[in-house]
Amino acid sequence: MKPPGGSDGSSTLIPNDEGKGFDRMRDPTYAGNARNGNSMSGARPDTPISGAWFSVQFQELMNAYPPLS
């Protein structure tokens, strides 16, 4: 299980010393492929590399409606 607030991956290539690239499914402009029915990902822009703290995603979880229990 992934801890809340941890990034799934970046939407663009971010220089880092961990060898992590970017994930096309995290790119909000990606138009999809046959495996997902050519659907837009709906991803947020400016996401950090995988495993990095992602404050915006954590805030979404904290402000969920209905509240998470």
Give the helix tally: 1
Q: How much helix, percentage-wise, in residues? A: 10-25%
Biggest sheet details: none
Query: For this entry, what is the oligomeric state of its chains?
Result: single chain
Going by helix content, strand content and strand pairing, the class is little secondary structure
Give the terminus-to-terminus CA distance.
17 Å
Describe this structure as you would to a colleague.
This protein is low in regular secondary structure. The protein has one domain. It is 12% helix and 0% strand. It has one helix and no strands. It has one helix spanning 55-62. 13% of the residues are buried. The mean pLDDT is 89.
Blueprint of the fold:
Blueprint lengths: L54 H8 L7
InterPro entries: Beta_cellobiohydrolase_sf
GO molecular function: hydrolase activity, hydrolyzing O-glycosyl compounds
GO biological process, one term: cellulose catabolic process
Summarize, please:
This protein has one helix spanning 55-62. The chain has 69 residues and is largely without helices or strands. Residues 1-50 are annotated as: Disordered.
Keywords:
little secondary structure; single chain; 69 residues
